[in-house]
Amino acid sequence: MRKKLLLLIPNLGLGGAQRVFHDHSVELGRQYTVTEAVFNLEGGNMYPSQNELVSLDVAGGGSPLEKLRNFARRITRLKALKHRLATDVCVSHLEGADYVNLLSKGSEKVILCIHGSKLHDANIRGAAGWLRKKVLMPGLYNRADRIVTVSRDINPELIGGFGVKPEKLVTINNFFEVKQIEEKAQEALTAAEQAVYEAAPVLVTSGRLSLQKNQAPLLDCFAALLKRQPAKLVFVGDGELRTELVAHARNLGLRVYEAWSAAELTPEYDVYFMGLQQNPFKYIRPATLFVFPSAWEGFPMALGEAMICGLPVVTTDCPTGPREILAPETSKPATPIRRAERATYGMLMPMLNHPASLTADLGVWTETLHELLQNVVERQHLGKLAQQRMQDFTREKIFSQWIDVIQDVLTR
Fold it and tell me: How far apart are CA 288 and CA 205, in angstroms?
């Protein structure tokens, strides 16, 4: 009989972890009976698969007391669901789901999938952040049968910062549907979009407009770059910082296009907020450079997708993921880099969230972008190397590792 897997995530709204969850569900469904579970469907189901989806139907938010009650309800309902399905293995994605998975554990095996840095996540703050870092993670994570991290550099954080036993940990990078992305990237731009791309070199970035992605300093850097040469900056994505970022761009004197407004799309703007796009790859492939200013990551999907599209990439050397992708032969430096590093597969750059060095770091970014925009040979070379590197992260090469982990815990 096929073993029964339950995959748990807080929601199936837009997000990198949700996309990975979907990919795992589809692939694991080829070998196991897979059921998906979410806390609720308030964000909709942005990544549907062919597997059964069950909502625990427990809302989030509210007062601290309401949050505690909802937390208890999630544990109780997941425990009942595991029993009803006769679950063999429950795999949880994202921290909130991890706690509920561990506290509802019965005879089934439990695997956690850790998608990002915990030590550097600026969203983990305040009293709740203290509780998560000092009580929940150290107290619960070792109850898991196995913990899968998406980046090698998450492991020492979990061991040193939260006391996780090294033998619990295994790293399996995210995989990419390389051929599918390559095909989607060939979709043509509209005539108006093409006119923008032909007007000047285009810097493109994609991802949620959020604290983690740290796009505000990129606007500062771009404003400085415009004083040296023509260029366009294209944002693909949306998020809670949309209004803030648009206002910041305008305060810098940049001409801003917003896809959600009634304005006509023309080459007269400097910065283009294109919003959510069903096919972001068609905006990435024809660009000149991909820029990625994140403050922290896990194993960044947007960065890898840009590399599949053949773009030279310029990214912060943030925790975690970019160095592992671009410079796999090197280790995480003891102190943050303060200059541009020409890595094997792209450019690693200073982070843009250190106030004491921000002015100098922005200068390094501006100079590096200017030099790359002037050097077509180097850009083409980096783009080819980027495509080559992403062949290491195809579904076929990566996903067998997940099967091995699941089979291993089932036999223990």
Answer: 11
Q: What is the DSSP letter of 32?
A: S
Give the integer Cα–Cα distance in Å for 265 and 279.
18
How far, rounded to the nearest angstrom, does the alpha carbon of residue 277 sit from its chain's CA centroid?
Answer: 16
Q: In sequence order, what are the residues at sequence separation of 6 or more whose Cβ sits closer than 8 angstroms to the Cβ of residue 133?
A: 118, 124, 161, 162
Helix, strand, coil percentages, rounded to 5, for the chain: 45, 15, 40
DSSP annotation of 411: T
Q: Tell me which DSSP letter residue 52 carries.
A: E
Give me the helix-helix angle, 376-389 and 301-308, nearest 10°: 110
DSSP letter, residue 216: H
101 close to 276: Cβ distance less than 8 angstroms: no
**What pTM does this model have?**
0.90
Residue type, 105: K
Give all domains of the chain, ordered by start, each with its CATH number: 4-175+394-410 (3.40.50.2000), 178-393 (3.40.50.2000)
Is the peptide bond preceding residue 149 cis, with omega within 30 degrees of 0? no
CA–CA separation, 340 vs 256, rounded Å? Answer: 28
Return the structure tokens found at 284: 């990435």
E-strand stretches of 29-173: 33-38, 52-55, 89-93, 109-114, 146-149, 169-171
Distances from the Cα of 137 to the Cαs of 10, 129, 131, 143, in angstroms?
17, 11, 9, 10
Which two tokens mark 82?
């595991």
Residues 6+ apart with CB under 8 A from 156: none
Structure tokens at 336: 């943050």
Backbone angles phi, psi at 113, to 5 degrees: -115, 115
pLDDT in tens, 184-225: 999 999 999 999 999 999 999 999 999 999 999 999 999 999
The per-residue pLDDT for range 45-60, each reduced to its tens digit, is 989 998 999 999 999 8
The Cα–Cα gap between 407 and 401 comes to: 10
